[in-house]
Queue: 2 jobs
Job 1
Amino acid sequence: MGKRIIVVGGSAAGPKAAAKARRLDENAEITIIQKDAELSMASCGYPYYVGGVFDDRNMLLCTPTGVVRNPTFYMNAKKIEALVCTEVTAIDRQKKSVQCRNLESGTTSEVPYDKLILATGSIPNMPRIPGASLEGITTLQSMSDADYLRKIKDEKKITKAVVIGGGLIGVETCEALQLAGIDITVVELLPQLLTFLDWELAKLIENHIKSKNVNVITENGIVAFLGDGKKLSGIKLANGAEIPCELAVVAIGVRPNSLIAKEAGLKIGERGGVCVNEYLQTSDTDIYAVGDCIEVKNLITGKMIHAPFGDLANLQGRAAGENAISGNKAQFSGTIQTGICKIFDYAAGTTGLTEKAALQAGFDILTVVNTSLDKPGFMQGKLLITKLVVEKGSGKILGAQCIGAGDVGRQVAQWAMAIMAGFSVHDVINADLPYAPPFSLALDHFIATAHIMQNKMLGRLKGISAREVKERIDKGEKITFLDIRDHSEYEAMRLGIGEKLIPLGALRKKLGELPQEKDAPIVTFCKISLRGYEAALVLEANGWRNVRVMEGGIMAWPFGREK
Amino acid sequence: MGKRIIVVGGSAAGPKAAAKARRLDENAEITIIQKDAELSMASCGYPYYVGGVFDDRNMLLCTPTGVVRNPTFYMNAKKIEALVCTEVTAIDRQKKSVQCRNLESGTTSEVPYDKLILATGSIPNMPRIPGASLEGITTLQSMSDADYLRKIKDEKKITKAVVIGGGLIGVETCEALQLAGIDITVVELLPQLLTFLDWELAKLIENHIKSKNVNVITENGIVAFLGDGKKLSGIKLANGAEIPCELAVVAIGVRPNSLIAKEAGLKIGERGGVCVNEYLQTSDTDIYAVGDCIEVKNLITGKMIHAPFGDLANLQGRAAGENAISGNKAQFSGTIQTGICKIFDYAAGTTGLTEKAALQAGFDILTVVNTSLDKPGFMQGKLLITKLVVEKGSGKILGAQCIGAGDVGRQVAQWAMAIMAGFSVHDVINADLPYAPPFSLALDHFIATAHIMQNKMLGRLKGISAREVKERIDKGEKITFLDIRDHSEYEAMRLGIGEKLIPLGALRKKLGELPQEKDAPIVTFCKISLRGYEAALVLEANGWRNVRVMEGGIMAWPFGREK
């Protein structure tokens, strides 16, 4: 008789583990036990199905050649038994068996295992407030949620919706519903959307979302769902405001679904996830756990975290599937928390630590913001804004965030590889990347960002963040702001912070127009602050001692502009 | 008086060096001496201007905000004197001066330097054959070449053209002229286009080019340009064939323009380029050289090569500009020869060594081909084909090539970073890359490629290349070919190499239809050979000992198909 492998959970990590186990052992008896009716759902694709990017629901469930991954497929193609609509209610570690209940028939059964792989996923958080059981409140976590929201899109009856929570799922859902023609308000308790970004980049994303006629409310929580009979009619916020809506999508994060593991006495971590070692093995050597139900190590801080990402789930499933068959051979050591999402015409991605996270972790850091195109203007290049975080002194790359209409995916991928390599900024100064005009600038945005950071580390660039500029303006400090662009650019767009316009080409002749006190604070900038940097160097060479360049330029200014 | 910096050459590396020198020293006297009328041309953009991707010639010459980088711009914005239409005819290393000749007035002058930076670029190779002075023969190397070809596009008088040389510039030019509505034939002396790819990937690109109604001739050289009076009327090939054409674009590579360096007694390398150390310093400590006129080290083989790429030119210019001002501080240690180009709907990229180059360099290697989508099917994912080359045993990544309609740029960038990091395949098995459906598969193509290579290294995947399959067919070997796809897929497309169709879902029940001699050679495959791999594992588990998977599947088959 073959080795008996039970996999609990049939979404991403579970099927991957089962498939890998099968490839390594044709004779193993492999069973997937899945609570939902569907298997191997592309759950990250739900928002795109809801938004109408594609219409065929089966595309979320099928192989690249169009075969739906149902129990028949698993049996015929992979000789894996898949029990759907079946819940595992308990694990008996002594007997090495799981208790199952068929959700349709109600019958229970006991299935024995040699190795058990838990892939029980996560549970969406719900606010514990009045009205939570009204009709019209949902999450976007399951296939049935996706069906529910897609029906709303197709029926076109609902005109107003709120999205509670401005994280990754929240903004993706916001876009999906807006594409469906629904008036959207996003409500976020924190001072910003997308906490995998620092505040100023998140604010630029918020501005972009608002430009699509989406209402965004931050620093304000929901205190009640309001009802009209059984149906949702609005929400009430902490500040007393009421927002009418017929639909509320709750996206305030997820937590590990680790209850059966806990009840079986497996070790659970501080974040509520199943504890596993680098082989994905739980505190019981015969039980592995993978995907959203576990905690993983942040490889930069060394801290255990909950990282519910589809790519990590697949990697973990592959390793656990191997280990369940072959003994502990395959490792999964942790994550650098790389992520990305699309938000209307922009993308936002991150890898490693934000400034905020790096400071919280106790790093002594330097940051820089770079704004530039992804490709040449003549190839319709689009803007990218990157914030790079490095360790002071060594220049070791700790994290990078990138947003914009340009090719964010490649940028974040490059930074992720650099972090995995343990690179400092100095190691990527001469990075040999694929260049041709349809693909990048001659010096890719990634390389230019490293150059700017190097200039800062060497004391050549004395930068100031847009946020600090704003704070100093708000404090009433007297600063000379120097906009280094051309007159036509100034007429088309400008900050309106009392800046003086001196185009770079005229600067050397107009030094007399600057404050002649050489310690007077001056901040230079332009559209992206490349000319701003050159201007600062000219001023310093001419004796000014207190000149700083506003990093990222006007395009990275997250506050309101005069024009 | 400030330090006198002379930069010879005003295309890419030269202006970058001059600008960097200026940023480091406001008081230096910096002069660019440029033979052409234009400065800082985006020469990699010429094919896109010729092809009509954009129409404003100034876009090749201007800053991101639309200011043409002419001598006035350089003087006003950067305080750099730019002498255009001026040729440097000699270097006097004793006197530390250069001899100049104004190409318009004919006047000569002598300009002294403290540090000299040579950025004299490259010279296109021309075939030494009869008829080379006929009208209608050009290269695509200069702004005036671009103007000439763009005029041809706009006038629409020419109907037939040949491109001599199927390298990077050749295929880009081919696309540009085809977009202009001209009948194109590409003639290449070697057995393949794009020698930065191995033969089978280049052949797939050739198939794609041919699908655009471009005629491609390989393994055939041009022996004469044929004339009708003064004008080109055709070309004659080594095999005697004549191809009528009114235009011939020669793109058979470039060589370093190092004559003045050689005449000045500077050390010249075996490839004809100026020799420089890691600080870009020539054999004369007061003279630096950068860009297409130098030789650089291939960081994998350690060999000196000519690598005329725009991105490297910029990186070298930046380092030399710094070193000319500050003494030798900034290094440029070499290249891993990363490159990419667009070819109609495909891109083709490379980094590190091809299989051919790795074998020539004496490496003991393993290769693998992976075919998969760049994104999920429901996000309109497109195909990528990657060939990975690693060192046998260690799995150290030596090179990767990627082609296809998908996001090749990101793939090649990731491999380039991995090579720079000195990574083995094992180091990228769990790469934490940015995943969301609009950007990649849950397991990015890059990671899947590493997984396949790991499977091969562990002996789980026994692969065979399409090329070897074809060779064995041609030798008349008796092999059972097993196509593992579904019937409908087989009806729509098939190789026609005598294959037997057994869909994966039916395989375990139809083992009796296979040769019962367990040593009989069997080759399995499917569209991309993922199912082909699973089938091979099933056969091996059932006792067959001579089963191999055709890597990359049908989509990577470079030969003709039955259907």
Job 2
Amino acid sequence: MFPKNAWYVACTPDEIDGKPLGRQICGEKMVIYRGVEGRVTALEDFCPHRGAPLSLGFVENGRLICGYHGLAMGCDGHTESMPGQRVRGFPKIRNFAVEERHGFIWVWPGEASEANPTLIPLLEWAESPDWAYGGGLYHIQCDYRLMIDNLMDLTHETYVHASSIGQKEIDEVPPTTRVEGQEVITERHMENIMAPPFWRMALRGNGLADDVPVDRWQICRFTPPSHVLIEVGVAHAGRGGYNAPAQYKAASIVVDFITPETETSIWYFWGMARNFQPQDAVLTDSIREGQGKIFSEDLDMLERQQQNLLRNPQRQLLKLNIDAGGVQSRRILTRLCEAEQQATSSLIASA
Amino acid sequence: MFPKNAWYVACTPDEIDGKPLGRQICGEKMVIYRGVEGRVTALEDFCPHRGAPLSLGFVENGRLICGYHGLAMGCDGHTESMPGQRVRGFPKIRNFAVEERHGFIWVWPGEASEANPTLIPLLEWAESPDWAYGGGLYHIQCDYRLMIDNLMDLTHETYVHASSIGQKEIDEVPPTTRVEGQEVITERHMENIMAPPFWRMALRGNGLADDVPVDRWQICRFTPPSHVLIEVGVAHAGRGGYNAPAQYKAASIVVDFITPETETSIWYFWGMARNFQPQDAVLTDSIREGQGKIFSEDLDMLERQQQNLLRNPQRQLLKLNIDAGGVQSRRILTRLCEAEQQATSSLIASA
Amino acid sequence: MFPKNAWYVACTPDEIDGKPLGRQICGEKMVIYRGVEGRVTALEDFCPHRGAPLSLGFVENGRLICGYHGLAMGCDGHTESMPGQRVRGFPKIRNFAVEERHGFIWVWPGEASEANPTLIPLLEWAESPDWAYGGGLYHIQCDYRLMIDNLMDLTHETYVHASSIGQKEIDEVPPTTRVEGQEVITERHMENIMAPPFWRMALRGNGLADDVPVDRWQICRFTPPSHVLIEVGVAHAGRGGYNAPAQYKAASIVVDFITPETETSIWYFWGMARNFQPQDAVLTDSIREGQGKIFSEDLDMLERQQQNLLRNPQRQLLKLNIDAGGVQSRRILTRLCEAEQQATSSLIASA
């Protein structure tokens, strides 16, 4: 259950560097590549000639060439040419709305005519020289909503990530959740605590003492269909916490774009954006490596949780206060999916 | 098709040493661990909060802590506590009757209220200093009854284990099978033969000549649900065979506890108990290694036999005299399963 | 969808050298071995005793001995003996018509009584000292008809095999296809072109200049159920092409026997027969290695094409002129399968 008329991160630019990429998104098998003038293109991954996956082919002068018999596909899904053939009658394949923005390739797996690029979230950190970004991609066998739950309830850090970002104080401070339009915000502020290992590293990386009490914050923001951006940070205690001046804090944004592959698998684009020492590439790599390790700790849990849920479809899960972020996010998703279904139904009824 | 109201070996103590174990038994996913005061506990492997497998967590002061969000589960399936939560209304998860006895953890996957620990088989060799035991565990993709068949008809030794315990004389002496209550006994006595390699090793290990004729015996005892204990041995010929005085023979008990995981897969606990040189740990290891190798020869055959049977559900198998042990064991199992089903049906009817 | 009353290549003699082979052909699980006097035998791979696969056993004096309990199976599917048993009443297992000819083992997976060995194709190159043959076997997850399509339309060489036998001139010369009885012939003749790398090697191997223009030909011959023999070669330009005298050309026959395992998997026996330097074993090995590498380039494409087709059962594929060879071959196969089905239906109706 996922909205199809929405922008999802399909891939990063390096994944289509010099060759087409085959990827399934929201149940749709796509080939994504740089077409005419390097513009990103996404098509159904199915050659109209004999059904070969076009992603096994190559790009030549902006046209996607099928690797089986050389059919040349245009960016609109119409075959442009094929050696020795007249192609005018060839059936069109589906093309998807796709945009390259903020360092990601975004795709709209539903009705291309409804795709509005202004709905792509504005990521200021991606466009400013004051920020640096590093991230990665995991393929996980779980419903994308389990990952949203995971990110909208950071109490799991205490258990899953005990050695890096977890600490018992997270459990002790209840989060607050509010809904603002289609945005769900869950936040937690911990005062006068000692920073856990990851944040000590960040404090040192930022030239700050790491052995003094800090105020720590986590502000999770869900926006549909499945973006979770989390402001996280620590400031030397008593300097204003989240609002402390830059010289007293280490802060960053945890970036999570969760793209359903099927009903029970996802492409998970994770990363971290920071606005301190943005020019320090070694620090970027070191943070990426640390974050990658921490986030990989969730994989097994999520996949095994998914298996447990599939085996027990009748079981009701609890919805505690700590789960409010996920619960509210799911409500928005349910409404969006129902609206999509009704639109489809009335389209059929009026036909 | 397996009885659920019965004691099965769930695991060995070393498997729950310091951490919970997740294991599926008779279709039930369980987490098994040492709870309060080290007492073995078995619960449904499903956290009532969000469905995470509890077996990914850890044990703290006898309580099982969920590795996702820290729910603390009590040994009776009631949640004891959870950081920041009132847990009184949390749904209970199922707990299973479980006992630690004779060096094994036994579980009753059916109705816990019907579990009677006195039904656990008495294993004298497991409690006496005169005996030594070594064994192992195999995970096999076959119906547990195929393994019972295998163990109740040792003519297969001649073919599957030709280089260790097989010998043509096994084929030449027909076995006799009898049923005593719920026990099935198949035995074979071979007289004045040369011992095969495994038994020559055992004779030497016992300080006996290995190049003289022996009398050899195999007495297989099935008891439900799926325990097969086999008295095996050789004695110098003419000394009384099975009843020969200890100084003329090498004898032991092959131990087989077969625990269904699903309808077509098993946890197979195998081992050997001997009452000669019980203090010799090197001999124990050497026998375990030899037995492990021999028993691994059955795996491929059993799994491929299972596949063949699944592909040919309509085929009738032959029931020869050599198969009588397995056939009688299956009859007892069928009766037990039917009785269980009737009990369930009348429970439903009277409700 | 494949004819079952037809000869398929089951294996090569080396595969049954000293031990039985288990192989599924047209949905039938078979055990293939050398029985009495070394004659090839194919039986259902199912022991009538307890369903063990007979292919896990061994051959003794022409009888197949079950590796589980020693049942001795005769070449006609009747049990010959079993230790300690009377076997007269044992159910017969199915035996398949099988022939060893032209360096291959051929099997008829349908009605054995209808198997006519004269229907096995005559392979002159396999019986003549003027020819050498080398080949291999691939297991591919695709419908056997996708492989027939592949071989009956060699335009794919330009794209799939660009670095060895592909060249743009293949695309530029349209093939012609004709049907002669149950044979489909697709041919293409290219004149005055430069030879691609594989053929340059063959020219040199044949003592001919490789840097002069050549005439190149490809004559694909499909015969049911799934044999595709392809005459390929190059001759120095202007010497008569296909009909040029032997001293001006390098020619060979690409041999393809495609045996369905299931509806969507095949055993693909590929090879090359050549009539130049037949005694040169090093050349045979070098050609086999080169061909094996080239043919392996098709595997991923065929398997991914198959997956695409399974996901899109409603999609119609295009049937272009270049596809005519495959299209005509499929028509013959459809007729043969329909005829088989009607024969079965009337058999049932008259019963």
